[in-house]
Write a structure and sequence with these properties.
209 residues, alpha+beta, Aminopeptidase, seven-stranded mixed β-sheet, globular
Length: 209
Amino acid sequence: MTSDKEQVLLAAPIAIVPANEALWEDLDAVLGSVRCHAARCYCQRYKIPDSQWRSVADEERAHRLREQTDCGHPESGTTSGLVAYLDGRPVGWCAVEPRTAYVKLLRTRVPWIGREEDRSDDGVWAVTCFVTRTGFRRRGVSRALARAAVGFARERGARAIEGYPMITQPGKEITWGELHVGSRSVFAAAGFTEVSRPTLRRAVMRIDF
């Protein structure tokens, strides 16, 4: 019998698994396929202070993500994201974990404009990054990951989950690199509601459980 958790994380035709249940080689293949900052950032941008960023080599960033995700260890009780598969091929990545894990995010001004928030509340989770493997875009990978992130956080005790997507406008191009935070439509399709719009190009989307 399939559990509710499996139904959320393994929705066909795109299968989503917690990163610790994926191989590191699969996640590395997704990140390494793109030509934006994700190929070198390894989802450390919100975890490493600006003062230290240049001193942390790409290899070290990759090592840190590998430890954070605990890829290849399905028995692990901790991980930091989700990996998407299409027909058995790794095609996407979503970073999602307690908001307090993102030290730089907590210190960044924009997400907090107009909001009274306890930034130290680890019951609030955050979705900070989406990456879709080159050749698999516009197939619903990000939307599937966003939906799975909701169930993933809720099942692990989150009381809320939020994201910080870009506002896309018809006729105005946004590079894939900029869209690593996701688009407003991706979050809306997963049931998130806009709670603030701190800038013309950025929204804060949230679900309270």
